[in-house]
Amino acid sequence: MARDTTDQTPIRTVAEMADYLAAGNKTKEKFRIGTEHEKFVFFTADNSPVPYFGDASISALLNGMQAKTGWEPIMDAGNIIGLAEPSGMGAISLEPGGQFELSGAPLENLHQTCKESNQHLATLREVAEPLGIRFLGMGGSPKWTFAETPRMPKSRYDIMTRYMPKVGSQGLDMMYRTCTIQVNLDFSSEADMRRKMQVSLKLQSLATALFASSPFTDGKPNGLLSWRGDIWRDTDNQRGGLIPFAFAPDFGFEDYVTWALDVPMYFIVRDGKYHDCTHVTFRQFMAGALKGEVADYEPNFGDWTNHLSTLFPDVRLKRFLEMRGADGGPWRRICALPAFWVGLLYDDGALDAAEALTRDWAFEEVSVLRDAVPAQGLRAEFRGKPLFDVAREVLAIARQGLVARARLNGDGVDESVFLAPLDEVLAKKATLAEDMLALYHGRWNGSVEPVFSEYQY
Q1: What's the CA gap between 395 and 385, in Å, rounded?
Q2: How far is it, in rounded angstroms, from Cα 314 to Cα 304?
Q3: What is the DSSP track for 71-96?
Q4: Do you know which PANTHER family this protein is assigned to (predicted)?
Q5: What are the residue ranges of helices labelled H in 110-185?
Q6: How far apart are the C-alpha atoms of 430 and 382, rounded to whole Å?
Q7: How far apart are the first and last CA of the chain?
Q8: Which residues contact 293 (CB under 8 A, 6 or more apart)?
Q9: DSSP code for 294
Q10: What are φ and ψ of residue 329, in 5° steps?
Q11: What one-character DSSP code corresponds to residue 414?
Q12: What are the average pLDDT values for consecutive 10-residue runs of the chain, which has 457 residues?
């Protein structure tokens, strides 16, 4: 989230909070695609990380992008921490370790999505190249130690950095040393949300396997294909991972609210100041737990919106659904990730087929698969067969959905063209992480340095 929300409307009841989520319901013709992608920022001279302050820096990139785009600067305690397109059609934000993120506009088709990411990267390169800076597309920081990784001056991250070691062993690595590609998709009703949530929760580990691209840590192989996927297994399991109640046949908005109410908060914002609230849940906040700690201690919808943005399930529910399982990667994968999920979820026939395929998948076996995928990728077994076999079935459904959508570009090509990187994974029977490891043990001669030139934006 580029900018934390301010909305002073008082919030009183669980029903109001569920109604807030239900307000995301849209008619199908208003469904949109919002793609987010993060990348690591490095100096081309020595592949070192770029700090926030200085002439050649993260802040210089943001100021340069502001001058190029005219987007509004987002400030935190006097520091620029992001940019917002004035009409709400996109934003640029920083992750804790300086990962540079575009939160794309809500677009109608994947051709627009791919054009958007291409234009963003082209503009960013114009700003970055005179500074000797480029960008790396993969899921985990391959070289820099935690100590070498920069820190961004963003108030919410200070609170999270103090809190993460209390609730999991890998939260700081998640914050500072991983990148993702995500897509945000709409629903038409509570029933439609339920179907899409359940299908995408069950298939999220497949996305992790298909997009695995984080096999290196601290300059050497880490024994995993998706280090990022493994990190999410012990970041903060109160607020992340698979959420078993969402597998229930009657799962709805109020169930998600009930869960969210009992997750510890991170913060509230009052008069531009962030107050650490990690000692209370939102339910306790509503019962007056912050009385005496802050002057304006009663909850409002800005607090609720911000709290929802600090929950980390594999599929996050807001007024849309966020697909959160994939590692970051090269440019073509920025297009492939939304193509995968749009194909599965935005065509009725494809959603029917995906739901039929996964209908009897139980929480327990999906959880076992989630644990296996970071190390084994598509070679993990599900019901006695390799995940490669499931991937072929699911990718065929996604392609069917994209063809049926019939969103054509100027050359008459439909959106299924953006699945090509995933077709290549299945054809080679190797993920991007496995490609990288083969290069490391071969042409790269045991060095991760070439990753910066071969997978840069």
Answers
A1: 16
A2: 20
A3: PEEEEETTEEEEEE-TTSS-EEEE-T
A4: GLUTAMATE--CYSTEINE LIGASE, CHLOROPLASTIC
A5: 110-128, 155-167, 171-177
A6: 18
A7: 23
A8: 275
A9: B
A10: -175, -175
A11: -
A12: 78 96 98 98 98 98 98 96 96 98 98 97 98 98 98 97 98 98 98 98 98 98 98 96 97 98 97 96 98 95 96 98 98 97 98 98 98 98 97 98 98 98 98 98 98 97
B/e letters for 370-396, b = 16+ CB within 10 Å, e = fewer, are bebbbbbbbbbebeeeebbebbeebbe
Taking the C-alpha atoms of 330, 334, 337 and 342 in order, what is their torsion angle to the nearest 10 degrees? Answer: -160
| 228 in Cβ contact with 180 (< 8 Å) | yes
Q: What's the pLDDT at 2?
A: 65
Closest to 68 (Cα-Cα) out of 83, 80, 51: 83
Amino acid at 32: R
Residue 154: both structure tokens together: 């963003």
Quick one: which of 449, 450, 441, 454 has its CA closest to 143? Answer: 449
CA angle 329, 330, 334 (to 5 degrees): 75
Does the model's pTM come out above 0.70?
yes
DSSP state of 157: H
Rounded to whole angstroms, the Cα distance separating 166 from 112 reads: 42
Instruction: Report the alpha-carbon distance of residue 105 to residue 109 in Å, rounded.
Output: 11
Residue 151, CB half-sphere, CA atoms under 13 Å: how many? 11
Interatomic CA distance for residues 206 and 315, integer angstroms: 13
Helix axes 331-345, 110-128, angle to 10 degrees: 160
Closest CA to 94 of 85, 102, 105: 102
DSSP structural state of residue 281: B
Token pair in block for residue 112 = 């627009």
Provide CB contacts within 8 A for 51, sequence distance 6+: 57, 58, 98, 150
Distances (CA, A) of 369 to 208, 279, 419: 11, 33, 23
- Per the CB < 8 A criterion, the answer to whether 171 and 228 are in contact is no
Cβ contact 278:315 at 8 Å? no
Give me the DSSP letters along 10-40: B---HHHHHHHHHTT---GGG--EEEEEEEE
CA nearest 21: which of 144, 197, 216, 166?
197
DSSP state letters, 202-256:
HHHHHHHHHT--B-EETTEE-S-SBHHHHHGGGS-TTTEE--GGGGSTT--HHHH
Give the residue ranges of DSSP H helices in 279-327.
282-286, 301-308
